[in-house]
Write a structure and sequence with these properties.
With 272 residues, the chain is of the alpha+beta class. The chain folds into 2 domains: 130 residues, no CATH class; 105 residues, no CATH class. The protein contains 10 helices and 12 strands. Strands 1-2-3 form a 3-stranded antiparallel β-sheet. A 3-stranded mixed β-sheet has the order 5-8-9, with no helix packed on it. A two-stranded antiparallel sheet has the order 4-7. Strand 8 and strand 9 form a beta hairpin. The radius of gyration is 21 Å and the shape is elongated. The two termini are 41 Å apart. The mean pLDDT is 86. The structure holds zinc ion (3 copies). The site of one zinc ion (ZN) has 5 residues, from strand 11.
């Protein structure tokens, strides 16, 4: 379990600091995907054959899998399904989750196999991954999410202009990129670091969720794609937190914005 840490960038503390310092916190906040699993089938909506779960305005493509499985007899882990393929129709009692890994109980070895990355079922590959078919031998959960996002016809938006599936899409893309910044190549894979890795829309359109429109960027590289916001001191504190924490590494990687950021920051603090 992750211990909840008090987030001073939200709520009344944030308001107080924002007024005091003339800065804004929330601009560069990033979407984190909570693990949703064991959703009962009655709460799943089937849309165009896909299992979709909606929670608080957020939307998730769900993966159906058998959480209890004869791993010894079949000599493998169960597969996950994204559509009502002919294999899936032959079984019932599926569990649904919105990402991998998941826990599987081996019925014939009578033990719990924790944190397993399941593979996509072959028939689902045929039906779901049409544009990818043949290019991948193995399809990961994040490929399925990105492919689904690419092909969606009806796009549901949240109030902040992002699409309802954004938390899942953004996490899927960062996972695919190994939690690395595509700008300066800093690795932000450890859980507390992940909030500093964002997904940037190259063309600026937050509803254009084709993979080629994405770029995973650390908060520093991302900020300089939106320089106007930095100059308005938006996201200042998170940037400062990140640079203080990763200064040596950013220097070693020769992050091209490091010096510029330090200049902007020092100019600002000289003037308050
Ligand atoms: Zn299937
Ligand atoms: Zn970077
Ligand atoms: Zn951006």
């Amino acid at each position: 379990m992750n211990k909840p840490i008090h987030d001073y960038t939200k709520g009344s503390t944030a308001k107080f600091l924002e007024d005091l310092l003339g800065i804004e916190f929330s601009v560069f906040s990033t979407a984190q995907l909570e693990f949703i699993k064991d959703v009962p089938f009655s709460e799943i909506k089937m849309i165009d054959g896909y299992a979709i779960y909606t929670d608080n305005g957020d939307e998730y493509l769900m993966f159906a899998y058998l959480s209890k499985y004869k791993t010894k007899r079949w000599g493998s882990l169960p597969k996950f399904h994204t559509v009502e393929c002919k294999t899936k129709l032959g079984f019932s009692n599926f569990s649904f989750s919105n990402k991998m890994p998941v826990d599987i109980y081996s019925k014939d070895e009578q033990k719990l196999l924790k944190d397993q990355y399941l593979r996509m079922c072959g028939n689902c590959k045929h039906e779901h991954m049409k544009s990818f078919w043949g290019r991948f031998s193995n399809i990961e959960w994040y490929d399925a999410v990105l492919e689904y996002a690419r092909n969606r016809k009806i796009i549901v938006k949240r109030t902040d202009e992002y699409t309802a599936q954004w938390k899942q899409i953004s996490t899927a893309y960062r996972e695919k990129k190994g939690w690395q910044c595509e700008g300066c190549l800093i690795l932000l894979k450890n859980l507390p670091d992940r909030k500093f890795l964002h997904v940037h829309h190259r063309n600026g359109k937050k509803s254009d969720n084709r993979e080629e429109n994405f770029q995973s960027l650390c908060i520093l590289c991302h900020a300089f794609e939106h320089l106007d916001k930095v100059k308005q001191r938006k996201g200042f504190i998170q940037l400062d937190e990140f640079v203080s924490l990763k200064y040596e590494e950013l220097k070693r990687l020769k992050n091209k914005y490091l010096n510029e950021w330090l200049t902007i920051k020092n100019d600002y603090f000289r003037n308050v």
